[in-house]
Structure formats: C-alpha cells, structure tokens
Amino acid sequence: MNILITGGAGFIGSALARALNRLGDTVTVLDNLSPQIHGTNPDDSPLFKSLPESVRFIKGDVRRREDWLAALEGQEAVIHLAAETGTGQSMYQIDHYVETNVRGTSLMLDLLADARDAGHGTVRRVVVASSRSIYGEGKYRGHAGYVYPGARKASDMRLGLYDCLCPETGERLELVPTDETSKTHPSSVYGITKLFQEQLVLTVCETLDIGAIALRFQNVYGPGQSLRNPYTGILSIFSTLLLQGKDVNIFEDGLESRDFVYIDDIVESIVLALDATNKAGVAYNVGSGKATSVLQVAQTLKRFYGATGALNITGNFRLGDIRHNYADLKKIRKELDFEPKVSFAEGAMHFCKWVEEQTISDAGYDQSVAEMRSRGLLN
C-alpha cells in the first residue's frame, strides 16, 4: 500500500515506518521535526536518521493546507500520529494544542472530502492515534456499581488524600480495567483535543466511506523515545535525571499508576488496525492491560542503572493528572487478535540498555517543573 504517516519521524512514527518498510509498503512521512523532540539540529536527530532511505520525507506542518496536499497525493491509507502531547504543557498552551491536534485533523478531513467530491480520492483507510487520556480517571467499582470519578480536588490532595472516592458516599473505590464503553471525560486540554480528534475522524470518515479506526494508546515507552522532551515519557525523564546523578522527585505518594505499553506492541496494533478492513468506525484500547506504579518505574530504573540519586516522594501534584488508568483489552483481543507481547520488566530492560548507549544531557525538566509551578499547575 501507499501509506502516509503524519508525525512519522517521531518515536512511534519512525518505528512504524521501519516496520511498514519491511512489510513492503511505500511510506511517506509528514513531520515538522519539532525541536522539542528532535533538538535544534533535527538533521542529526536519531529518530529522523532511523527512517529508511526509501521513505519519502516531507518536512511540513499539519496546520498547513499545502503540506497536506503534497503528502496526501496518491495515498491509500493515512496513519495520523501527528499531535502535540503532554498533559501538563497542554494546560497553558491551550490554543497551540487545539490548533495542532484539532485543526490539523479537521484540515486533513476537509481535503479528503474535497478529493472524494472531485472524484479522485484514493485514501480508503485512516488510523488515528487517540489516547487513554480521553477517559480522565479510569473505571472504578463501588458498592452500588461502576463509578467514573471526576477530577480530584486540590484541597483533598494538599491533605495527602490522592485516591478517588465515590462522590455520593465518600467510600474508597476499587480500580478496574477501563473498557471502550467507559465514560469519556478528559481532565486535561490534551485529553479534550484527543477525544475531539478521534470523534472527528470516526464521524467524517464514515460519511466519506473511508474505513477509520481510533487506537486509544496507553503510556508508550521503549528505545527511541525522546530523551530531550521534558513534558512526556516518565521513563525518559527519570532515566535522564538518574544518569546525571540527580534525585528523582516523585509526585503524590508514588502509588499513582499507569499502563505502560512497549513500542513494538504499539506498532503491531497499528499494523493490525490497518489490515482489518472489515472493521470501521470503531475505537480500541491499546495497552499492556496491567497497572504499574510510578514508584515501581523509578525503582526499576534506579536498580538497573545502579544510580545514586535518591527517590523522593514529594506529595506534589499536577492539576489535570489522573490517579490511575489501565486498559481492558478484551475488545481488541477479540476483534483484531492483538496480544501485548512485552512485559514491563522486559521492556524496561530493553529501554535501559538503549538509554545507556545514548548521550545524556539536561533535558530541561527542572525548568518545565518551575514553569508549571509558576502557572499554578503544580502544587
């Protein structure tokens, strides 16, 4: 197939481009080579340089119509990964996140609609990267049934009360895996834009007779993840700090958890979604199906590196952060035959070995924390 990957020089996109290239597909990448990910000299970016020579690369921006026109020509499928990511940063770069994630997507759909109306539309498949952030807090069980808690109160968290409580009874809730029928109520600007992005693609593509699938990724990690970006990827952030001999300050009580899914499993899910031509207009969770605490992540990395930095439980918290969320994978297992193959222990080992081969420099994490604090987003 002729396949366009937006954001194809990023962490997920470059791994996917290599995989599709091996499968014999003709790949085009549209990417703006953001300095936050690729550094000030993007031509030397390891992610960019990892793209196969046969990949057609277009340096462009999803907010520019002419860049979309150049990239879409002759394509049979689009894998739309391009987006601004990061919960914290989204809370004070609101317009930038909306313009990139929402308008960038609506512009693509406009052009697909125009092409169909003109009788020369070639795109028949779209896979959009959605996010677990659309769920806000995950799914819980109380005495009266399932509960979907709203955003936690800053006043409670200042007292060290981090767990989600039933809004009616005040009881502590039992965490259960979040399935695709769970309530979507994002607690960050990033999550709002990802939900809007997903809904735009699934709704419009159905009217255009284009088979579309949304993949709701959990926390993706693995070799190739940017060590320069201080706003996403706690494995990268913690690794950079530990290998510089610095302490790691862990928010809340360290028991907040996420579903960490390895990059190879993410690539596999995209390939399966691309090939599942009998499925359209649906969304799937993609994760490991297991919850891992942030403290466990930090302890795993410190042990592997033999680092001397302390792990400090600070009690600080970020507005917009969730307490827990991990994926229910029943639907994607049944319908796409997806099965995560890499455990967190194995994936972390592969990641750490890769990190040790990289040049480690200050990624600006302390500055990002100071900025969030100055804007009242970090307590």
Secondary-structure arrangement, i.e. CATH architecture: 3-Layer(aba) Sandwich
The SS-based structural class is alpha/beta
Portion of residues within helices:
25-40%
Q: Note the beta-strand portion.
A: 15-25%
Radius of gyration from the alpha-carbon trace, in angstroms: 20 Å
Quickly count the domains: 1
> Can you tell me the overall shape?
globular
SS field, number of helical segments = 14
Mean pLDDT: 94
Note the run of SSEs as H and E: EHEHHEHEHHEEEHEHEEHEEEHEEHEHHH
CATH class: Alpha Beta
Strand order in space, largest sheet:
3-2-1-4-5-9-14
- By CATH, the topology is Rossmann fold
Instruction: Tell me the major beta sheet.
Output: 7 strands, parallel
Low-pLDDT runs of 5+ residues are none
Taking the alpha carbons of the first and last residues, their distance comes to 49 Å
State the fourth-level CATH superfamily. Answer: NAD(P)-binding Rossmann-like Domain
**DSSP E strands, number:** 16
Describe this structure in words.
The protein has helices at residues 11-22, 35-38, 46-49, 65-72, 87-90, 94-118, 154-157, 189-207, 234-243, 263-275, 294-305, 330-336, 344-355, 365-374; strands at residues 2-6, 26-31, 56-59, 77-80, 125-131, 139-142, 145-147, 174-176, 211-217, 219-221, 248-250, 257-258, 260-262, 282-286, 292-293, 311-313. Helix 6 (94-118) packs parallel to helix 8 (189-207). It has one domain: Rossmann fold. The mean pLDDT is 94. It starts with a strand and ends in a 5-residue tail after the last helix. With 379 residues, the chain is of the alpha/beta class. The strands form 5 sheets. It has a 7-stranded parallel β-sheet with strand order 3-2-1-4-5-9-14, sandwiched between helices. The protein has a 3-stranded antiparallel β-sheet with strand order 7-6-8, with no helix packed on it.
